[in-house]
Amino acid sequence: MWGKVEDPGERNGAPWRPAEARSDTTPRRPARRPATASTHLSSECGRRQNPIAGPNPSSQTRSVLIRREIPADTEVVRAIHLAAFAREDGTPGTVEANLVDELRVDAGWINALSWVAVEDDNVIGHVVCTRATVGPDALPVLGLGPLGVRPDRQRSGAGKALMMHAIIGAADALGEPAIVLLGHPTYYPRFGFQPAVPAGIVPPDPGWEPAFQLRTLTTYAATLRGDFVYAEPFRRL
User: Fold this and answer.
1) Rounded Cα distance, 112 and 95, in Å
2) Whole domain around residue 104: which residue ranges?
3) What is the pTM of this model?
């Protein structure tokens, strides 16, 4: 759902799940969309061809600016996710694009945690964290995703910059204790993610292991334990 993983290199940050699990960063019900071993919630982890974009000039080095999303970015952010998560048959990634739209008007949306990558004055990537909770006391944490990069600019460093220099740093600066995602288990550890279950954070679906991962931040405490709950739009998938 979030992109096909051909290798766990830097591509769209879509979540990954084993064959019996749901799609990574954005969980789904298997009855609605059977999961595959290669699906994930990031478009940087699995590049696919984009019918509306040109060839990937991967040999070119360009300067990428990372900044917070502004209202003028809304339409291009949607277009990025439509293209980044397009299916192999060319069907646009409407589920992911619609998810971002629904999150944007949900109580779990956090303006300070929606970031874009800009190259030559063009927005080429987007990532967002939204409010999630853990345990019976609904302790606040973050759920990451979707993370999408325009197909012709995947493997350009934009996804890595969005993850490490924007969303993780911004979340830490805001005093958030942890970020949780469903993602490729060999890709996200480079950003400090580790299996969440050993830390006591329980996924809605046991089949999400080992893709269900946790990134602890400065204010994290080991007492943060219990069932993990995404923002409402994720739960409607």
Assistant:
1) 23
2) 64-235
3) 0.79
